[in-house]
Amino acid sequence: MAHATQPLRLRVGAATSQPARLHHPTHRIIRAREDGSRRRRSALVAASAAKGRAAEVVREFYEGVNRRDLAAVAPLIAEGCVYEDLVFPRPMVGRDRVLGFFGDFMGSVSPDLRFVIDDISGEDPSAVGVTWHLEWKGRPFPFSRGCSFYRCQPDPQRQEQIQIVYGRDCVEPATKPGELALVAIRGVTWLLERFPSLADRL
User: Fold this and answer.
1) Contact 177, 183 (CB under 8 A)
2) What is the DSSP annotation of 32-51?
3) What is d(CA 182, CA 185) in angstroms, rounded to the nearest whole number?
4) Per-residue confidence at 197, pLDDT binned at 50, 70, 90?
5) According to the UniProt record, where is the region Disordered (predicted)?
6) 146 and 171 Cβ atoms separated by less than 8 Å
7) d(CA 127, CA 162)
8) At what angle are helices 95-108 and 53-67 packed, to 10 degrees?
9) Measured by CB atoms within 10 angstroms of the end CB, which terminus of the chain is less buried, N or C?
10) Residues 6 or more apart in contact with residue 96 via CB below 8 angstroms
């Protein structure tokens, strides 16, 4: 008995309408590398955007002091800021204390006395070094050269606002001991080497 030959029918469904996805481990590795590259690019973009922001904040700080504008300086100082002016025996701790110090400065010196930035670093997103001097009516003020270091961080409440969390000022001394300073250092070192217990009194 002869069997009827039926034509071969191909069933076209959803499975054949889309190309089969490849799940080979190589493809997973490629995707992981692409994701890693995207993350690195994002990090570089963020770092590039952050670069220089700390220096801008420090510039704004000096500009506010020069204008005697304490309200402009206030948001640049972190709540827990520690500020060391080496002319004073102890650091100033807290925004209110720091602003009080600069408020006293603004109220006690001539408005014609201004900070002039000689050089400022700008590559680090959080640390800034500055060299500066004071000028009175455009003329250099005696014994007014100084250098400062600042560390900046975003405000926890407003990440876009960069604030000064630490500062240190070192000002040119009015008296310059010259080589006598080396003599004094050698003398103190000699005493500490022979009487180490004296170090506890430093």
Assistant:
1) no
2) HHHHHHHHHHHHHHHHHHHT
3) 5
4) confident
5) 1-23
6) yes
7) 11
8) 40
9) N
10) none
Q: Token pair of 158, please?
A: 């407003």
Whether 7 is in a domain gets the answer no
In a domain, 87, yes or no: yes
89 within some domain: yes
d(CA 58, CA 64): 10
Rounded distance between C-alpha atoms, residue 193 and residue 198, angstroms: 9
Residue with tokens 């240190």: 168
Q: Residue 165 maps to which CATH number? A: 3.10.450.50
* Residue 125 belongs to domain spanning: 57-171
CA 95 to chain centre: 17
Q: Which tens digits make up the pLDDT trace of 76-130?
A: 999 999 999 999 999 999 999 999 999 999 999 999 999 999 999 988 999 999 9
Q: What angle do CA 68, 73, 77 make, to 5 degrees?
A: 145
User: How many residues can be counted in the chain?
Assistant: 202
Dig out the tokens for 108 from the structure: 């006690």
Residue written as token pair 């948001």: 75
Residue 155, token pair as written in the block = 């405000």
Residue 171's H or E segment, with its range, is strand 162-171
